[in-house]
Amino acid sequence: MDHAEIARRFVEREYPQAEAVVLAGSTARGERTPTSDVDLLVIGPAEMFGPGEDSRAATYAFGGEVFEVFAYTPDAFTRWVERGLADHRPLLLNMLIDGLPVRAGALLESLRARWAPVRDAGPQVDPHELEVRRYIVTDVLDDLRDATDSLERHVLAALLFERLGQLLLLDAGRWLATGKHLPRCLRAWDPDRTARLADPLLEGDDAAFLAAAEAELEALGGRLQAGFTR
Protein backbone atom coordinates (compact mmCIF):
# COMPACT_ATOMS: atom_id res chain seq x y z
CA MET A 1 0.00 0.00 0.00
CA ASP A 2 1.33 3.43 -0.95
CA HIS A 3 0.73 5.40 2.23
CA ALA A 4 2.30 8.53 0.76
CA GLU A 5 -0.30 8.54 -2.00
CA ILE A 6 -3.14 7.96 0.48
CA ALA A 7 -1.73 10.82 2.57
CA ARG A 8 -1.69 13.09 -0.48
CA ARG A 9 -5.34 12.35 -1.19
CA PHE A 10 -6.22 12.87 2.46
CA VAL A 11 -4.51 16.28 2.51
CA GLU A 12 -6.25 17.33 -0.68
CA ARG A 13 -9.58 16.62 0.99
CA GLU A 14 -8.98 17.88 4.52
CA TYR A 15 -6.17 20.47 4.27
CA PRO A 16 -6.01 21.68 0.68
CA GLN A 17 -4.36 24.99 1.67
CA ALA A 18 -1.46 23.26 3.46
CA GLU A 19 1.97 24.50 2.42
CA ALA A 20 4.07 21.76 4.04
CA VAL A 21 3.02 18.20 4.85
CA VAL A 22 5.26 15.46 6.24
CA LEU A 23 4.50 11.76 6.69
CA ALA A 24 6.07 10.71 9.98
CA GLY A 25 6.23 7.94 12.59
CA SER A 26 6.41 4.22 11.90
CA THR A 27 4.87 4.64 8.45
CA ALA A 28 7.73 6.90 7.35
CA ARG A 29 10.32 4.59 8.92
CA GLY A 30 8.89 1.47 7.28
CA GLU A 31 8.17 -0.05 10.70
CA ARG A 32 4.39 -0.28 10.64
CA THR A 33 2.55 -2.79 12.80
CA PRO A 34 -1.04 -4.06 12.35
CA THR A 35 -2.34 -1.28 14.61
CA SER A 36 -0.16 1.56 13.30
CA ASP A 37 -1.83 4.79 12.34
CA VAL A 38 -0.54 7.36 9.87
CA ASP A 39 1.10 10.39 11.49
CA LEU A 40 0.97 13.62 9.52
CA LEU A 41 2.53 17.00 10.25
CA VAL A 42 0.61 19.73 8.43
CA ILE A 43 1.68 23.38 8.31
CA GLY A 44 -0.16 26.14 6.51
CA PRO A 45 -2.20 29.33 6.73
CA ALA A 46 -4.83 30.21 9.30
CA GLU A 47 -7.51 29.47 6.69
CA MET A 48 -6.99 25.78 7.43
CA PHE A 49 -8.62 26.28 10.81
CA GLY A 50 -11.81 27.58 12.25
CA PRO A 51 -12.18 31.00 13.92
CA GLY A 52 -9.79 31.44 16.82
CA GLU A 53 -7.78 28.33 15.95
CA ASP A 54 -4.16 28.15 14.86
CA SER A 55 -3.40 24.51 15.65
CA ARG A 56 -5.15 21.17 15.77
CA ALA A 57 -4.43 17.62 16.86
CA ALA A 58 -7.13 15.38 15.39
CA THR A 59 -7.81 11.81 14.33
CA TYR A 60 -9.43 10.90 11.02
CA ALA A 61 -10.47 7.74 9.19
CA PHE A 62 -9.58 7.83 5.48
CA GLY A 63 -8.76 5.25 2.83
CA GLY A 64 -8.91 2.37 5.28
CA GLU A 65 -6.35 4.04 7.55
CA VAL A 66 -6.41 6.05 10.76
CA PHE A 67 -4.69 9.41 10.42
CA GLU A 68 -3.24 11.25 13.41
CA VAL A 69 -2.88 14.83 12.25
CA PHE A 70 -0.85 17.57 13.91
CA ALA A 71 -1.67 20.80 12.08
CA TYR A 72 -0.29 24.30 12.72
CA THR A 73 0.17 27.73 11.30
CA PRO A 74 3.89 28.61 11.07
CA ASP A 75 3.67 30.74 14.23
CA ALA A 76 1.79 28.05 16.14
CA PHE A 77 4.33 25.46 15.02
CA THR A 78 7.13 27.57 16.46
CA ARG A 79 5.23 27.97 19.73
CA TRP A 80 4.61 24.24 20.11
CA VAL A 81 8.17 23.36 19.12
CA GLU A 82 9.49 25.65 21.84
CA ARG A 83 7.25 23.95 24.38
CA GLY A 84 8.65 20.60 23.36
CA LEU A 85 12.20 21.87 23.62
CA ALA A 86 11.51 23.16 27.13
CA ASP A 87 10.34 19.66 28.04
CA HIS A 88 13.38 18.13 26.29
CA ARG A 89 11.08 16.24 23.90
CA PRO A 90 11.36 17.54 20.31
CA LEU A 91 8.54 15.40 18.94
CA LEU A 92 7.47 17.91 16.31
CA LEU A 93 11.04 18.41 15.17
CA ASN A 94 11.46 14.66 14.79
CA MET A 95 8.39 14.62 12.56
CA LEU A 96 9.59 17.63 10.58
CA ILE A 97 13.17 16.47 10.04
CA ASP A 98 12.90 12.68 9.86
CA GLY A 99 9.60 12.35 8.03
CA LEU A 100 8.90 11.94 4.32
CA PRO A 101 7.64 15.03 2.47
CA VAL A 102 4.12 14.69 1.12
CA ARG A 103 3.87 18.35 0.13
CA ALA A 104 7.26 20.04 -0.10
CA GLY A 105 8.34 23.56 -0.97
CA ALA A 106 10.02 26.66 0.38
CA LEU A 107 8.32 26.53 3.78
CA LEU A 108 9.39 22.97 4.51
CA GLU A 109 12.94 23.69 3.39
CA SER A 110 13.19 26.79 5.57
CA LEU A 111 11.76 25.05 8.63
CA ARG A 112 14.15 22.14 8.30
CA ALA A 113 17.10 24.50 7.83
CA ARG A 114 16.09 26.46 10.92
CA TRP A 115 15.33 23.61 13.29
CA ALA A 116 17.70 20.76 12.35
CA PRO A 117 20.70 22.42 14.06
CA VAL A 118 18.61 23.01 17.18
CA ARG A 119 17.69 19.35 17.43
CA ASP A 120 21.23 18.23 16.63
CA ALA A 121 22.58 20.38 19.46
CA GLY A 122 20.68 18.36 22.05
CA PRO A 123 18.74 19.53 25.11
CA GLN A 124 19.74 22.48 27.24
CA VAL A 125 19.37 21.10 30.76
CA ASP A 126 19.72 23.09 33.95
CA PRO A 127 22.08 21.31 36.40
CA HIS A 128 19.44 21.67 39.11
CA GLU A 129 16.98 19.69 37.00
CA LEU A 130 19.47 16.84 36.80
CA GLU A 131 19.77 16.94 40.58
CA VAL A 132 16.00 16.86 41.01
CA ARG A 133 15.83 13.84 38.74
CA ARG A 134 18.64 12.16 40.69
CA TYR A 135 16.72 12.83 43.91
CA ILE A 136 13.61 11.20 42.41
CA VAL A 137 15.59 8.16 41.25
CA THR A 138 17.02 7.78 44.76
CA ASP A 139 13.51 7.87 46.23
CA VAL A 140 12.06 5.33 43.79
CA LEU A 141 15.05 3.04 44.25
CA ASP A 142 14.50 3.02 48.03
CA ASP A 143 10.78 2.40 47.57
CA LEU A 144 11.55 -0.63 45.40
CA ARG A 145 14.07 -1.97 47.87
CA ASP A 146 11.53 -1.74 50.72
CA ALA A 147 8.45 -2.97 48.82
CA THR A 148 7.06 -6.38 49.76
CA ASP A 149 3.88 -6.47 47.66
CA SER A 150 4.48 -8.16 44.29
CA LEU A 151 2.37 -5.73 42.28
CA GLU A 152 3.99 -2.73 43.94
CA ARG A 153 7.42 -4.14 43.10
CA HIS A 154 6.49 -4.58 39.44
CA VAL A 155 5.18 -1.02 39.23
CA LEU A 156 8.16 0.47 41.03
CA ALA A 157 10.69 -1.47 38.96
CA ALA A 158 9.14 -0.14 35.75
CA LEU A 159 9.06 3.37 37.20
CA LEU A 160 12.70 3.15 38.26
CA PHE A 161 13.73 2.03 34.79
CA GLU A 162 11.84 4.93 33.24
CA ARG A 163 13.12 7.64 35.60
CA LEU A 164 16.70 6.38 35.59
CA GLY A 165 16.67 5.86 31.83
CA GLN A 166 15.50 9.42 31.25
CA LEU A 167 18.17 10.76 33.60
CA LEU A 168 20.81 8.79 31.71
CA LEU A 169 19.68 10.27 28.41
CA LEU A 170 19.67 13.85 29.67
CA ASP A 171 23.03 13.46 31.39
CA ALA A 172 24.45 12.19 28.09
CA GLY A 173 23.09 15.19 26.20
CA ARG A 174 20.30 13.17 24.60
CA TRP A 175 16.66 14.12 24.22
CA LEU A 176 14.05 12.59 26.52
CA ALA A 177 11.89 9.68 25.45
CA THR A 178 8.87 7.94 26.96
CA GLY A 179 6.97 4.71 26.44
CA LYS A 180 8.24 2.40 23.71
CA HIS A 181 10.66 5.08 22.53
CA LEU A 182 12.64 5.06 25.80
CA PRO A 183 14.31 1.66 25.32
CA ARG A 184 14.92 2.49 21.65
CA CYS A 185 16.68 5.72 22.55
CA LEU A 186 18.65 4.08 25.35
CA ARG A 187 19.86 1.31 23.04
CA ALA A 188 20.84 3.86 20.40
CA TRP A 189 22.83 5.73 23.06
CA ASP A 190 24.61 2.79 24.72
CA PRO A 191 23.36 -0.75 24.05
CA ASP A 192 25.69 -2.36 26.60
CA ARG A 193 24.72 -0.15 29.54
CA THR A 194 21.07 -0.45 28.56
CA ALA A 195 21.33 -4.24 28.55
CA ARG A 196 22.98 -4.28 31.97
CA LEU A 197 20.01 -2.36 33.33
CA ALA A 198 17.26 -4.00 31.27
CA ASP A 199 18.27 -7.68 31.40
CA PRO A 200 17.64 -8.22 35.14
CA LEU A 201 14.42 -6.24 34.87
CA LEU A 202 13.17 -8.52 32.09
CA GLU A 203 14.28 -11.61 34.04
CA GLY A 204 12.46 -10.45 37.17
CA ASP A 205 15.69 -10.45 39.18
CA ASP A 206 14.98 -7.56 41.54
CA ALA A 207 18.26 -7.84 43.42
CA ALA A 208 20.33 -7.67 40.24
CA PHE A 209 18.18 -4.86 38.85
CA LEU A 210 18.63 -2.84 42.04
CA ALA A 211 22.38 -3.39 41.91
CA ALA A 212 22.52 -2.27 38.28
CA ALA A 213 20.39 0.79 39.02
CA GLU A 214 22.55 1.71 42.01
CA ALA A 215 25.69 1.44 39.87
CA GLU A 216 24.22 3.76 37.23
CA LEU A 217 23.07 6.21 39.89
CA GLU A 218 26.56 6.22 41.39
CA ALA A 219 28.03 7.02 37.98
CA LEU A 220 25.63 9.97 37.78
CA GLY A 221 26.83 11.42 41.07
CA GLY A 222 25.35 9.03 43.61
CA ARG A 223 22.38 9.17 45.92
CA LEU A 224 20.77 12.53 46.58
CA GLN A 225 18.48 12.87 49.55
CA ALA A 226 19.14 14.56 52.90
CA GLY A 227 19.90 18.26 52.62
CA PHE A 228 18.72 18.61 49.04
CA THR A 229 16.38 21.52 48.28
CA ARG A 230 14.02 21.10 45.36
A few lines on this structure:
Strand 3 (55-62) and strand 4 (65-72) form a beta hairpin. The longest helix has 22 residues, at 150-171.
CATH superfamily placement of the largest domain: Beta Polymerase, domain 2
**Top CATH class of the largest domain:** Alpha Beta
Biggest β-sheet strands, sense, barrel: 5 strands, mixed
> Which descriptor suits the 3D outline?
elongated
Number of domains: 2
InterPro entries: NT_sf, Polymerase_NTP_transf_dom
Domain Polymerase nucleotidyl transferase: 7-47
Keywords: Transferase
Pfam families: NTP_transf_2 (PF01909)
Describe the structure.
With 230 residues, this protein is α+β, with helices and mostly antiparallel strands. It has 10 helices and 5 strands. Strands 3-4-2-1-5 form a 5-stranded mixed β-sheet, sandwiched between helices. The protein is elongated, with a radius of gyration of 21 Å. The model has no long low-confidence stretch (mean pLDDT 95).
Features:
230 residues, alpha+beta, 2 domains, elongated, five-stranded mixed beta sheet, Beta Polymerase, domain 2, 10 helices
